[in-house]
């Protein structure tokens, strides 16, 4: 690791996650430097003054920000609807890009972004599937690569979000693409990472099936969404993913993954404990849980940007490409379609879901 | 509880489970008495002499055994193919019946048995769904009835059997009806118990979907069976069961059930530990697992026969009826059909699966 | 195992534990038979009529009960103060004896009982250290005997009782001999079982040290007792026991034992879970705990009486002798003395504590 | 938090922990800046060039390093024998000091350092008891302060180190002061933090008692040290610490703390798991353990230096003072003395151990 040169970042979008990314870049990344943040909101300047190094420039216009010569790379953490445009603007401005998932909730838009990035092969464009950078999932990947699981053949994974009685989540849901696209995409990406060979065939998926119901948020139905969704993905190599997404947990954020191999089974996050404290009182023997995905994956976000920095500075292959994101999006979209039509969705030989 | 009168049992079939049932009846049932065992095998007499009270009579012919006046009830633990015939013979002989699940691997045969038993309303006929008598599943039922879960809406359940390298299991599989009928029936029964009202409507199920693959036992394919099967059951009351059956675990028998309610979620058997010992050595921090279902459910089998005895002696309602067994069998059969046809199977308004 | 002959028991003392023992003997012991119970209380007859086989005779006078020819063995579960007398009466009546621990809270009385039993070598006299019959502690003993722990050198053990706000416990404490004798005796017996060779030298202990305090029950101080006591026992073979006894837990009865060996460490009952149910709700991820020692050791009491029955019927060596009980009592008494005098207590070459 | 001014650090001693501290200061501390490192070893320069920002100056002479005007604070991570001298040199050079524990293995030397620091009240001098900065122990402190434990009255704590077959540890032991001073000091500090009031009386401890044995490292005996030590500390406010230190674990570094309160008990690090992965294979259900204290406390070291930085920049009170370190050292020294003399050690009214 050389510390001679640092990668200079701008963060586009300083919302909840963007502000965390900016602080990671300012204080947790040996080879990266935060040089700018950009957000149209007027509060950004004040926040940045309080929370970021004084050397950080603050922009309200992304074009202006992308025009800066001292910006080598951008981290896009804007609202989802702007991801695709900002990726394209950034590569046109010759910046490397780390964009939060998803590229888009719309498959065609994602596809166009992938095609556009392929025109800039000298630029690195990575989609932030944060779980790939979590130490526990990485340990599973290592165990698989070492053969400790035998042949991994089945993944059962659940992304259980804590119930949000404030209603914020529901208002946000309409723009999220629905539960399989917003929430299941992480489990889908894990399944592709763990179950498929590193050079998978064009047709990766045989078929998917999904169903679901609303138990806390009946108002989601008007957007054809649910607060509990179950999806099954049968891959072409005869491996299977069963994914459960929900928004209705009372104890916290609880994402739980079982990977079944012929020699062993591993579980990630069997108990979503917040820390190493156990309490024994009138409620029994108990642990507190991580309230949100952020407490669960805080370090993964740091690893993610550090690893992307290495990829750019050392010209290494991307750990997760836009093509990976597109494949995951196809599956999530197919699950959404299956849920809405009550039918299995098959994939054709070109690897495209038949959304009939 | 009156101890004045004891229910006098004959056990039909002294194989692996039958011999355990006979010993339970001999030594673990305050209100029941073992008076006879029956098995055509010549080794039975010798085993009984070693293992049972000397007062126990041994028969090789079931008709002769059923003809005994001092037999009030029979426990049928023969091979599955004989269950239906022995139930009918027993009720015709005016005996109460506790029969191991399933009544039959064939839906029509089960249906005929149910119809026959309805002609003998004064006799109690119970199918031994042992998990209903396990203290942990009963605790869950109690929590549900107390409202502690809010509305239970989703069950994810897995029956994971330890891999049997001897091949015994495969030879047995052909007569078992396949993984959903042999192994999934317990999870299906639990789901009906936990998710449906006590007086469910005629049409209980909306549709099912199943898939699976063979990872250790490719020879199962010739019987159209798998060693890992996944099934989804969407009930008419909008609750869902996701069931996973497998025969490929290395650590032991591990049946794991999650029950999701709107107020809390409960897990049964998160760690299938054999006892209360934890070992910390070069393999890490670890526990041993129950090798088979028997170590897991040993006490449930005792509870089962004690509770059935109470039902008969005190003329109480059956905790699980032949009609319950038939409904579970319909669902298991539909899952098998879905697996074989790769299509969802729908149920009609009469509650029958459309096995097209 | 021969079932030809059954050992015929009388249970002396039908209090809380005596009634459970009587039911175990009536319904859970293939080779034992309950023929009589004896208790001076007038309620006994009624209880026995409801709860025991009609063949069980009920006595109010122990001498009359011990005079019965059809009684082969007695199980003594009276109040502690009567244990010694009843043991001696029973062996004089030529009965085998299984007596609840302790023989006496007074060391000299225990010693006299041991001396008396030695005059009847044809009779089996066992003290009911129930943990020796618990499947988890037995598994630890097996692991030790197999060498899996290397050399076991240190035990840290805690007997944590649930806090009893009713005050019953305090009223009982005065007659119990204090926390080390009443409660620590089990941990001491385990330590001797796990740490000492099967034929230990006469001088087994080098010294002990104890201290304690009252945090919930200041009224215990008037009897020179505490609700939290810590004891250390240094054995002559250079192994160590650290024992903690308390009466102040809020979650349940929690007895927790760590056995440190040179190759591995084992823990018994790391989580005192009541059953296999885990709840995830607003209180976190949690399990319920066994409320009392009885839920924890229910099966151990059954094993205990079954094993004692085998010992008598098959003339096998006692798994735990009166001499073992006496040695444990010496240690407990020395701990009590150390607590009261604030000084270490040393043992002399004859294996006696120097209670100066 | 103002980011306008950064605290400029030199790290003295770039060994195993010093190099980690230097990297934390370089990359993980928003308000701190690493300006220099100092180590007499010739390899330091090369390592610093590879691992630290190019702006970091490298010294081999501590006097020269301490003479730099742009150094505001030092972090002392040298070998223990140099701690005291470097602390005094540093405060004389008007630098704030964060020194790794212990100040010295010799009580009188520690006392002199404390006295010296009192002459420089404008300088902050903190001893790095890293557990105080661990999120789990902090959670316990918060629960105590919130009254969730009722009155905390007893701590049972163990620092279990992984067995080191290389013999490195033994060679290091002679200079470490023995197991109670080297290893137990952390548990002692925790006990003082959790059990004593924030302004404890002069006499904090009533008496201590210790014992121990060697099971893997008999060669330690020549230095009067052991690989397993047990200590008991009875505080003047009638609370108790039981501490177990050992060097003989096979599964990893396992430091385990139980805090008993009148309303609840909490456990820290019941399972010393390395990550959130659980493996189920032929060895059972298992987790991997943290191999050393560093994997366990990595983030605590970052918190520690960030918090010390805040203390200096915002002139806040020290979370753990030199006086705290001295009190812990008195207790550890008393335990060592008790072990060597086989006698309890009492403290006098001035709070000094009577090392007779």
TrEMBL record, chains A, B, C, D:
Lineage: Eukaryota, Fungi, Dikarya, Basidiomycota, Agaricomycotina
Domain called GFO/IDH/MocA-like oxidoreductase: residue spans: 137-265
GO biological process, one term: NADPH regeneration
Name of the protein: Myo-inositol 2-dehydrogenase
Alphabetic keyword roster: Oxidoreductase
Keyword Oxidoreductase: yes
Domain of life: Eukaryota
Cellular component, GO annotation: cytoplasm
